[in-house]
Amino acid sequence: MSYNLSQIMKSAHRNYKKGGKTFSECLKSVWSFAKLQESFSPEAVKSRTDKFLAERHEAMSKTAKATPSKEYNNLNIPASAYYNPNSTHYGAHYVGD
Fold this sequence. Notes:
3 helices
């Protein structure tokens, strides 16, 4: 984070010349504005966005646990539910997995 000190002093002096404030008040306002501008630089915005996306991805991965279904591997289903007596041709025993 480097600030353009020349630009800060010029802006503070310009505000002081307009009147209404002391030079220290002008310097304080210009410094706060420079820091605000720095926080909206493309690098700072990108780093905040990357941090937010990483946190969101981590939160989503924690909540999206795979839960195996008990009905998916249920072996108590009789074979007649899948096969009928007339299924004797090629591919007739296809279950659809």
